[in-house]
């Protein structure tokens, strides 16, 4: 939510005018810890957060705005520039441009976001990728799958968008520092190299995100290459 408002300060004196300028009176804020109604309640929540991270400051990595909704990526950094927390915030806006229902998906020491927050984030990505109704959002283990014409070409898990890749996309994403989806099962790390996290610069560029999503869909629906069967010639005597 802090990043949705631009760069909301953790300092109380600076925070009050910022909240009045960018948040509606009846704002409702949600994160994995619960929901808070009203600016006063949110101010108290942030005051408590400030006490827990006295030397912290928010850095905005990128903001998207579309159809009265905003999506932002941010980091919480210590004064020595150590990254303490990363997350994604999204908000529905009022007619006057104030945030009505900001929400944050927070990743901290392996934490996860709730199912509803994950679905909302997946819907926001879907609105950037294709016209309304073109992409279905379905449950996918602990995340939300992006499905088009019955084919799953991506998913959101723990606040991160993953897309299906072919060899060319995999090489491009790896060059940008992206990593494949992985999870732990039976005490070991399992890596799924068909899906890679979408690089930050792609998330920040709607047209590039759409192109990458089209390529992901093509990679999903492209027929698997058939391997020719070897023919063994046998000569029989006589």
UniProtKB/TrEMBL annotation:
Name used for this protein in its record: Regulator of competence-specific genes
Coiled-coil residue spans: none
Residues in TfoX N-terminal domain copies: 128-219
InterPro entries referenced in this protein's UniProt entry, alphabetically: NTF2-like_dom_sf, SnoaL-like, TfoX-like, TfoX_N
Domain spans labelled SnoaL-like: 18-96
Pfam families: SnoaL_2, TfoX_N
């Amino acid at each position: 939510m802090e990043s949705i408002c631009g760069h909301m300060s953790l300092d109380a004196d600076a925070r009050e005018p910022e909240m009045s300028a960018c948040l509606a009176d009846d704002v409702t804020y949600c994160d994995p810890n619960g929901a808070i109604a009203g600016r006063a309640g949110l101010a108290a929540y942030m005051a408590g957060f400030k006490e827990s991270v006295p030397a912290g400051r928010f850095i905005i990595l990128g903001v998207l705005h579309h159809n009265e909704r905003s999506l932002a990526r941010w980091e919480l950094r210590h004064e020595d520039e150590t990254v303490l927390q990363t997350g994604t915030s999204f908000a529905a806006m009022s007619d006057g441009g104030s945030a009505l229902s900001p929400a944050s998906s927070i990743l901290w020491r392996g934490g996860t976001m709730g199912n509803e927050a994950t679905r909302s984030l997946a819907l926001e990505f879907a609105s950037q990728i294709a016209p309304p109704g073109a992409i279905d959002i379905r449950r996918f283990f602990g995340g939300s799958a992006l499905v088009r014409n019955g084919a799953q070409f991506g998913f959101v898990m723990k606040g991160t968008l993953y897309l299906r890749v072919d060899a060319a996309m995999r090489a491009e994403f790896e060059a940008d520092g992206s990593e494949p989806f992985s999870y732990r099962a039976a005490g070991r790390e399992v890596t799924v190299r068909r899906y890679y996290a979408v690089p930050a610069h792609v998330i920040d560029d709607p047209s590039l995100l759409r192109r990458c999503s089209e390529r992901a869909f093509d990679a999903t629906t492209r027929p698997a290459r058939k391997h020719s069967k070897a023919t063994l010639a046998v000569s029989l005597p006589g």
